[in-house]
Amino acid sequence: xxxxxxxxxxxxxxxxxxxxxxxxxxxxxxxxxxxxxxxxxxxxxxxxxxxxxxxxxxxxxxxxxxxxxxxxxxxxxxxxxxxxxxxxxxxxxxxxxxxxxxxxxxxxxxxxxxxxxxxxxxxxxxxxxxxxxxxxxx
Length: 138
Known about the structure:
By secondary structure, the chain is mainly alpha-helical. The chain has helices at about 5-15, 30-50, 70-80, 85-95, 105-110, and strands spanning about 55-60, 60-65, 65-70.
């Protein structure tokens, strides 16, 4: 099912508990990347709950006692506890392609970068009739 607006989607997902004693269920459909991230967050979720914290997954983040944490933040915390430097972990998790200065590859990459970072922002028009402030992020 595809919804016309995010607010309607959230209303349907919020009302799914009313179907708990029926043969019908409603669950969110996440992208493949979000599903991968959530599956990697599950061990952190179990560990937080084992330690007595209130923890749950929210989209592709773990919320522990009201504090949202990304997978990279959690992996960095674990690495720091193990005595590793955060830079080493980031290099392992997100290796950057080394490009020699003055090569064609570097010129192609630089040409693709926008001159103004604001050019990366996509403007979206929301019709005030369909805008529902109740479900906007805080």
